[in-house]
């Protein structure tokens, strides 16, 4: 069922309940008021008649009939009767001569017990009133057809039914147009989204000028589209750059082998070709390993081995690791006053990934510094651990700082150095995976400082966030 129709029916149901309650309440109180009114009038007439009959020395039955016939009472088909204590009818009057009431003796007995009794007889409403004085004990019956009151109730019923049905019809029509107007922005948002595809992610949803819920929804979807566009663009650049980086050594290998196979050569020449191919294969293997690490850091953290990790222990293993990769690289550890509580040095995470992230940054610091030296500072502050990696290298131009964490991006002044442009991107993803953050400050010609901030164990959930 369309949402528009569901809203309309729900609106109609609410109006139906409200109108039904209002109409039923009005009808009920009007009906009970009419019944109370006729009962009061009949009771008053019965009391008056009983008092007249109780003064027989003054009013005889014929005189009372004349009084009854001349009494102005807006009731139709009036009938008045009186019975003594032996249930003998001692008085009778009716508008129509042949109109008499057959009253059951049980009614008379009940009236004597209760004093006043209301009942219906035929289409008339009646009152039985028990009157007692020192000389008289009678039960007076007054009955009449309340034509005026019932006509008013009937007219009121027609008016209420007309109002009820008209209200439902108006509610349905109004609810339909209301829901159409309410859902029109949703349709427009859906139409705008349908015009957006993977090949056309630049389109955005019109938010309008009114700051309402639809504006918030449109803004949220636009922010989502911005993230998707950035992700698609990043993926496109990654695939393009990865394909280029992988094809370069493969092309070199293929070309060298093809040339070497064109004719017979000496063993020394074959050896030089094999050494060159071996270097390309090592380059290709290293690139493949880096891409695998990059994919692991971009994957689901639920599949990682998450354990408490002491960051000082990871940092202390870096000097030897850097020496192993290049004997000229020098790493200096400069730890501030170590906290008494060792928990302030522990984070939840994957030790191998954290080591890889910090190693990549330290390796860049050593590689792009003239003295091949990097200084690592560790400081525990509150619920965070700060790791600063400082070098005195060539620095990074400010316009390029915002791009250094993109995959395969390399600063222009580092083109002469070997590398793939994946180290910083990989480090950033690993730190983000551990709910941390990396900030960079750099001055060209003076050096660069990377600051890594990680939450400590008590401020970190073992289930890391997905980045």
From TrEMBL:
UniProt keyword Transmembrane, yes or no: yes
Record-annotated HAMP domain positions: 180-233
Ranges where the Histidine kinase domain occurs: 241-458
Keywords assigned: Kinase, Membrane, Phosphoprotein, Transferase, Transmembrane, Transmembrane helix, Two-component regulatory system
Compartments reported by the entry: Membrane
Any one annotated GO CC term: plasma membrane
Primary site of residence: membrane
InterPro entries the UniProt entry points to: HAMP_dom, HATPase_C_sf, HATPase_dom, His_kinase_dom, HisK_dim/P_dom, HisK_dim/P_sf, Sig_transdc_His_kin-like_C, TCS_sensor_his_kinase
EC annotation from Swiss-Prot or TrEMBL: 2.7.13.3
Pfam families assigned: HATPase_c, HisKA
Catalytic activity: ATP + protein L-histidine = ADP + protein N-phospho-L-histidine
Domain of life where this protein originates: Bacteria
Transmembrane segments: 7-31, 159-178
Molecular-function annotations in GO: phosphorelay sensor kinase activity
UniProt name for this protein: histidine kinase
């Amino acid at each position: 069922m369309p949402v528009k129709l569901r809203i309309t029916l729900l609106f109609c149901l609410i109006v139906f309940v409200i109108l039904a309650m209002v109409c039923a309440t009005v009808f009920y109180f009007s009906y009970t008021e009419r019944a109370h009114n006729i009962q009061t009038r009949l009771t008053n007439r019965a009391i008056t008649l009983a008092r007249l009959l109780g003064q027989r020395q003054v009013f005889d039955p014929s005189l009372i009939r004349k009084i009854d016939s001349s009494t102005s009472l807006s009731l139709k088909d009036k009938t008045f009767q009186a019975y003594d204590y032996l249930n003998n009818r001692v008085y009778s009057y009716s508008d129509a001569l042949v109109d008499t009431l057959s009253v059951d003796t049980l009614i008379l007995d009940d009236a004597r017990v209760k004093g006043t009794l209301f009942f219906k007889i035929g289409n008339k409403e009646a009152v039985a009133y028990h009157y007692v004085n020192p000389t008289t004990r009678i039960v007076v019956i007054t009955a009449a057809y309340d034509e005026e009151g019932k006509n008013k109730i009937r007219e009121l019923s027609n008016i209420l039914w007309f109002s009820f049905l008209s209200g439902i019809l108006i509610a349905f029509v109004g609810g339909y147009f209301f829901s159409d107007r309410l859902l029109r922005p949703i349709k427009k948002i859906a139409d705008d989204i349908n015009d957006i595809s993977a090949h056309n992610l630049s389109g955005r949803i019109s938010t309008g000028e009114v700051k309402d819920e639809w504006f918030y929804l449109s803004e949220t979807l636009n922010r989502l589209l911005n993230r998707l566009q950035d992700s698609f663009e990043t993926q496109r650049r990654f695939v393009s750059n990865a394909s280029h980086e992988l094809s370069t050594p493969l092309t070199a290998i293929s070309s060298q082998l093809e040339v070497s196979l064109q004719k017979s050569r000496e063993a020394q020449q074959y050896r030089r070709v094999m050494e060159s191919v071996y270097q390309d294969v090592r380059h290709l293997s290293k690139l493949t390993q880096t891409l695998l690490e990059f994919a692991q850091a971009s994957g689901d953290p639920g599949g990682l081995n998450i354990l408490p990790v002491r960051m000082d222990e990871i940092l202390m293993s870096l000097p030897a690791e850097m020496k192993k990769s290049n004997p000229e690289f020098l790493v200096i550890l400069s730890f501030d006053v170590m906290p008494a509580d060792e928990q302030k040095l522990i984070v939840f995470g994957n030790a191998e990934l954290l080591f890889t992230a910090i190693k990549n940054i330290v390796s860049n610091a050593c590689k792009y510094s003239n003295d091949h030296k990097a200084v690592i500072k560790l400081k525990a502050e509150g619920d965070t651990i700060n790791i600063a990696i400082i070098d005195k290298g060539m620095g990074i131009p400010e316009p390029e700082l915002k791009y250094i964490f993109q995959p395969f991006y390399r600063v222009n002044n580092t083109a002469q150095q070997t590398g793939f442009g994946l180290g910083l991107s990989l480090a950033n993803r690993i730190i983000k995976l551990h709910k941390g953050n990396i900030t960079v400050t750099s001055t060209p010609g003076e050096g660069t400082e990377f600051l890594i901030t990680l939450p400590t164990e008590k401020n970190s959930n073992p289930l890391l966030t997905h980045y």
